[in-house]
Amino acid sequence: GELSDIAHAIAAEQKAMDLTPEDRADLPTYLNNLGNSFKFRFERTGELSDIAHAIKVQQRAGELTPRGHAHLPGILSNLGGSFTRRFERTGDLSDIADAIDVQQKAVNLTPQGHADLPSRLNNLGCSLTCRFECTGELSQVWDAIAEYQKAVDLTPQGHADLPNYLTNLGGSFYQCYRSSGKIGDLEEAISCFKTASISSVGSLRVMLEAAHHWAGKLILYDPTSPEIIAAFDKALSLLAMVAGLERTVQGRYIQLELQNLSGLPLEAAALACALDRPDKALEWLEQGRCLVWNQLNNLRTPLDSLRIKDENLAQEIANVSQKLESAGSSRVQSHVDMPLPEKMSLEAEARAHSDLAEERDTLLKRARALPGFESFLKPSPCSAIMSHLPESGPIIVINVDEHRCDALALLAGMEEPLHIPLPNFSVDKANKYRNIFDQQLRTHRLRAREVEVTLSPDEQRGLRRAPIGKNGEDLSVYRALRGLWEEVVEPILDALGFSAPPRVWWCPTGPLSFLPLHAAGIYQGSISDYVVSSYTPTVTALTDRVKNDHSIDSRASGLFLTSQPNAPSASPIPGTAEEVQSIFQRAEGSGVRASKLEGDETSVAACLDQMKEFSCIHLACHGSQNAAEPLKSRFLFHQGDLELGTILRSNLKHADLAFLSACQTSTGQEKLSDEAVHLAAGMLAAGYRRVIGTMWSIGDAPAQKVATTFYEYLFNHRDETSDSAFDGSLSAVALHHATKQLRLGLDDSEHSLLTWVPFVHFGL
Fold first, then answer.
1. Which of the 8 DSSP states describes residue 525?
2. What mean pLDDT comes out for the span 626-643?
3. From start to end of 647-708, where are the E strands?
4. Does the structure show a pLDDT above 60 at 343?
5. Which is it for strands 634-637 and 640-643: parallel, antiparallel or unpaired?
6. What phi, psi does 503 have (nearest 5°)?
7. How many CB atoms neighbour CB 755 within 10 A?
8. Nearest by Cα to 157 from 334, 346, 369, 421
9. Which of 79, 275, 325, 551 lies at 20 to 30 Å from 627 by C-alpha?
10. What SS3 class is residue 468?
């Protein structure tokens, strides 16, 4: 997905074209290839100038190619694809008419038995489908079905393109069903999607799309069908393969975003809950959510991990998978200069694809026979996920889907989750409450850590009017927190049979990920008055820490602090210097091993050296998150930036506690709310067992108050058996105590509420 690569391709192909005389027979080939590269870039960037260039050079390629030439059908088919892409962007009917015209010519010029005929029929079907989606004329979708059906009929079993053709055919049958309401059309669609998704060969991404459709259309057909479980099982297994074979963190992120897959596990879990299968709901949520975070957690893809164990086996799996993926993706003839006798027949291609699929299955069996790789590219079963749960309280996974909302309570000693339906909560309510918070945060100017501004008289206690919606509804933060209590938290506690567990770990999904469950309540009382709350990106992120919990090496036990009050291009936060100095003095007075470097005193490299030497760190600075490239999220220093990727690549074998006294360090990205790509989750991935972050921006003075009170609690309650032992095992309780102390000095205004709520604890 690197745009610089396609830019280099275009430059090279442009040069090739410029160096080729008009009368050279291979000029159309160069033009065709250049056009395809422009089209690929357009599909990533959406720049209309790129698709216009693609059409222009491919039209010229067609004009320069003699009628009857073997390359002409391929060039015309590619030109039609470019017209279709532009139509999808602009809606100009003349483009789709041109696409259908040239693709029909491409089909007519392609001899029967030619290996490329099915792909050209499929391309024509795609353009006909686009026209139907614009005009709504049912006869046009039947034209598309006819072309897709020919492509399917001409393609032998075992060919990698067959799942793609079947998925397109199923989509057109489903469009017929939506227009006509005939159940037979829906049955045909389901049959196509099922056959495509269970194929032994083909593009994993295409098969994943088919499996998603198979499950979704089955729900429409018969929501009680036991086959739905099989369909979602297939979809989530394919998602595990697709994500596991992706080579980079950014690559996973792009695939999730482009394929609109982030909602798949939530949809699957909602269905599992409706069928009273909480075990499946947990498996699917754990498998399908936080794919980017899971890779961050290891800084390696599953293939990277395997490569450490068996480099040759990992490379073989990567090579075979790439060949199958390329073979089963929609064809674009980038190179049309292969002589016809050299082209493989469809039957030979099918045999080759089947051989590749068998080879991959054999390689995967070899990998799964290795110790520690039994679940390589496979979902973990419920029993494995439920092992090593914390003894001190439940993990509460909350699934928020457009069809229903449910909680899954995981308690030590139980074999499967306790299913708690949440019938009074919904995606719409979660989004409503989130919008309330967004609006009030803007109103109160809580966008960056900075010195507090003096509020106007109308903004002071008792004088601010409660925000009112168009229909007179209460749009205050108090209303949102009351809704979270009544519709989410209280039903969960009631179902658990106790009102005050010592600890609760929240694992929310969807838009609920942006809301402070730890502060839900009917004020002046909230869950925070009697429950110590923490968060975890996934269940496994916490259970792995329970499983591998160990004492800190006494030589590394201690606290490193740094303040960066005047980072370039960021607002001054002078309180960070006082904050760090105050904590440092308290640490020394308590006999805790401590070190501090402030402002210009430290470089990024020096900070990293200290992080390796100390089990706990306190970063009082600005933070900047990069959701698209999580490894480039960073902390802003006077002398450069400390990037998350740099931290992850460091060997922090003593990492225990990270306190991020920076703004918005636990805020995710709206488009992929189930991908924990914020700085707090990144520090967990770097190896820290517990992290303090903030859900939104914090004021300079409250940040100092919470931080100093937090450490006072830890210093006063540290293990007295050692003169200098210090760790973060009580960090969740310490943060709970610190925010409670902050509240005691605040009034009951909404601004005060937004002052203490953002502080959150992740991990053990």
1. E
2. 84
3. 657-661, 690-694
4. no
5. antiparallel
6. -140, 150
7. 25
8. 346
9. 325
10. strand
